[in-house]
Structures are given as C-alpha cells and as structure tokens.
Amino acid sequence: MKVLQFELYKKTGGIESFLLNLDSYLAGKVECDVVCPFSSSLDEPSFNSVGTKVIKIAGIRHLGKYTIQVDEIMRKGKYDLVHMNKCSAINIIPVLIAHKNRIPVIIHSHNSMTRVGMIGLPIHMFNRWIMGHISKANLACSEVAGKWMFGYRNYSVIKNGIDTNKYFFNLKDREIMRKGFGIADETIVFTNLGDLRKQKNPIGLINIFSEVCKKVDAMLLIVGDGVFRKEMEKQVESFGLNNKVVFLGHRLDISMILCAVDCLLMPSFYEGLPMSCIEAQASGIKLFLSDTISKEVEVTEHVYWFSLDQSVEKIADMIAENCTQLQEDDRKEDNLIVKEKGFDYEIMAHAIYENYCLTANKG
Which CATH fold would you assign to the domain 164-340? Predict the structure, then answer.
C-alpha cells in the first residue's frame, strides 16, 4: 500500500510529530510520502530514517504552482489513498485533486478551531461540507476537533499517540540539562512548547509568568519560534526578566528538556488535543492550562486549569500554590498512566493502519 500524507507547514509542530510517530510504526507495512513546502523546517532526516519520502513543493501562496505540483504528484505517484491532516478546511485543493484523480481520501482533524477570521469561517464551513462528500473516512484527535471539522457527520476519535518510552523521566538527563542552563536544583522551571503565534497567546504567557516570578523562584524555557518572538523578547526585557526567560527556538531534544523542567504553562486561546501536553504528562510534570483547551487532554492528576477571564494575578496565585516539584517516582508513575490511558503511539498507529486498509479497499 502507498499513501500520500498532507499537510505540513513551515514550522515543525504537533502534526509533524504525529506523522513521524505514525510512519515509524507503518515502516515495512505502508510506503509513505509526506508533502511539505520548500520553506519548511521539517526534520527530513528523521522521516527518511523510518522510510518516509519527503516531497517539497511550493507554498499555497504560489497557488498556480502549488496546484500543478500537487496534481503532478498524485497523477504520477500511484497512491492507494491520501491522508489529509487538517487544522481547518480553508485549503481543500489537495482533497479536490485527489478526488479528480480518483484517489480515496481520509480527512483527519487535529484542532478544535483555528484562526480563520470573519472571511475564513464561512469558507471553512462550506469547504467542510464539500469534503464530507469526498472523504471516505473522517478521523479526529478529540471530540472537539471532530465537531470543528465534521459538524454532525460521523467521525472516529483516535487519540494522538506518542512514544511513551522516549519521555520516561531520566534523572541524569535532568541534571545534565539543568547544569547546562545554569539552573539551581530548587528553581521551579516552566516551559512552553509550540509555535509563537496568536493562537498560543504568547503575550499572555509572559504576563502570567512575570506574576509567578513575584511569588516563586522560577525560570521559563520557551521552545519554538514564530512571528511573536520579537514582541515577546521586548516584553521580557520591559519586565526585567532577561535572566528568567530563555528562548530556545526549535529543538529536537524535547524529551530531555521535559526532564529538566517541572511545569508546562499553556494559556492558549484554543487547541484540539495538543501533543505537547501528552508528552509533558508522559515526562511526569505538572500542567497549567487555560480552560479553552480540550478537557480530553487531562490524563494524570497533575493538570491544573485556569480561565483566561481571570486576572493575571489570580492565575499566578493558583500556579504559585501548586507548582512544587514532583518526586522521581511520581514522574515515572505518570508515564505509565499515559500509556495505560491509550496515548501510546502503537495503539494510535494500529487504529490508523486499519483505517488505511479499509479506505484503500473502498477506493
């Protein structure tokens, strides 16, 4: 079986991690090609190492070239199906081209909503209706992601899985990383993982952390990059937090960074079922999340919620009360809980493989 996987973006993120985990399981069973723009920072060697071919094309802004290249890939690739991983239905060109070339399509929703704007929302609603007539199978990472992409059409929820063994807490890694960053043992270290875009509420992140710093000895490691980075750096400087906040950019050693930290702080405006939250819980750290994030992400007993309608001071008070460091045994126990709750990538990948087989046969 040969599968074409869409759609990856300029920056690495949750869908990329999801596909890498999936393709590592499918190696030897399914031949996978994954499409991304030329400007992508995708970790191509990792995909190649599991047998996945990375195909780079023009971005959607170059509409004519993008359309021609997608059509050529599908015409010549002899694919059994196309697996579309979507955060919104704004761009359905690959879906339409797959339909034209009589290739069955799986639509897979990964977000509860996305910033599509006043013009984009009706486009999303209309396009998801079109996709509903083309798709052979509808998948979602969570119930809210399913409702966002499919409305009242039928869909199956398959939890995004991770390699839980990779995120098993390692005390030696913690000591190495904290020593490298010059962090004292007693300092409470927070992290935020993901692109620095409006959805993630990056300005709110710094506002909340600045208040937390007034109450506890804390540091913040920001993993990821994006359009808000310069504004955040100015904000950090204005608060006098240059020695408290570290911008790490894109990293490939996330599991080691999670060993080093104690808490994840995510004040996002919206999310589907963010992979970073599952990874963080598998590493055994505490999570402080805005209640706009799907409650399905709560796996362990170390998840704390706040409302973005609350004052920054009230949010910081709650965090300061609960941000103590967990013991090594507790962190390792949380890893086992994540696996038992069905978030291991082998469970996820097997379910998707079954959908691949059924969908290819439908075609």
Answer: Rossmann fold (3.40.50)
- CATH superfamily, region 2-161+344-362: Glycogen Phosphorylase B; (3.40.50.2000)
Q: What pLDDT is attached to residue 159?
A: 87
Total Cβ atoms within 10 A of residue 354: 11
Distance CA 168, CA 40 (A): 29
Give the bridge partners for 269, in sequence order: none
The CA distances from residue 139 to 100, 131, 229, in Å, are 22, 13, 33
Report pLDDT digits (tens) over 130-159: 999 999 999 998 888 899 999 999 999 998
Is 233:247 a contact under the CB 8 Å cutoff?
Answer: yes
The pLDDT tens digits for 191-213 are: 999 889 888 999 999 999 999 99
String of DSSP letters for 87-146: S-SS--HHHHHHHHTT--EEEEE--S----HHHHHHHHHHHHHHHHHH-SEEEESSHHHH
CA 104/CA 80 separation, integer angstroms: 7
How many whole angstroms separate alpha carbon 202 and alpha carbon 268? 8
DSSP β-bridge partners for residue 108:
85, 139
Mean pLDDT by 10 residues, the chain (363 residues): 85 77 94 88 86 93 95 97 93 96 96 73 93 95 90 92 93 97 97 91 97 97 94 96 95 95 95 87 98 92 97 98 97 96 90 95 68
Question: What are the sequence ranges of the domains in the chain?
Answer: 2-161+344-362, 164-340
Which among 264, 286, 267 has a CA at the least distance from the CA of 276?
A: 264
